[in-house]
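Observation: inputs received (chain + flavin mononucleotide).
Thought: call the complex predictor directly.
Action: predict_structure
Action Input:
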Amino acid sequence: MAERLIIGMSGASGAPLTVELLRQLRSLHPEVESHLVMTRGAELSLRQETGLGPEALEALVSVRHANDDIGACIASGSYAAMGMLVVPCSMKTVAGIVSGYSDNLLLRAADVCLKERRRLVLAARETPLSTVHLRNLCEASRLGAEILPPMLTYYDRPASLEDCTRRMAARLLSRFGLGGADDVWTGLD
Ligand SMILES: Cc1cc2nc3c(=O)[nH]c(=O)nc-3n(C[C@H](O)[C@H](O)[C@H](O)COP(=O)(O)O)c2cc1C
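Observation:
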């Protein structure tokens, strides 16, 4: 059976990171069955930050699910998957995850990962972080999620923002034992 990875995309800043991650996943790990679910906010930020529409991401994944389709396969714990990456992860989505208020498919799929003890990685993004955000992130970590904010690094001497994006996408994939591209920026078009 093919390994499955669920990718949730919410309305925080960072759409180019999701695009790059899906490109790396598809080109380097075509054996992985990828399931994408996007919130309405994610669609807006994708358009604003990349000029792309959701159909561009649809072409990069095995299956795209509608966020209101709470009966989709990824809403069930019996549907095996290696886990889920939420990239980028808004503070609203973090709040939904920690409260178990699963009123959309992204939140339900994350809830399933927690209850099935599967890997759940949150590329949580906001700045500055309020006490509410910090409290919710701390709770998400306590509940078993990994918090991996898309932070800039300087020690690896990035040549460009694209360079940073490529390396961060690779780092996120590596949490699932999937090697990423750390030497080729695949671009946005
Ligand atoms: C341009 C833009 C950038 C945003 N960036 C962030 C962000 O970095 N982090 C965040 O938590 N919310 C951010 N937001 C707010 C979220 O999109 C908003 O709270 C939304 O309701 C999140 O819903 P979702 O988690 O269902 O996508 C941004 C909104 C816009 C319009």
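Thought: report the result.
Final Answer: The pocket of flavin mononucleotide is lined by residues 10-13, 39, 41-42, 44-45, 48, 90-93, 125-126 (CB under 6 Å). The chain has one domain: 4-174.
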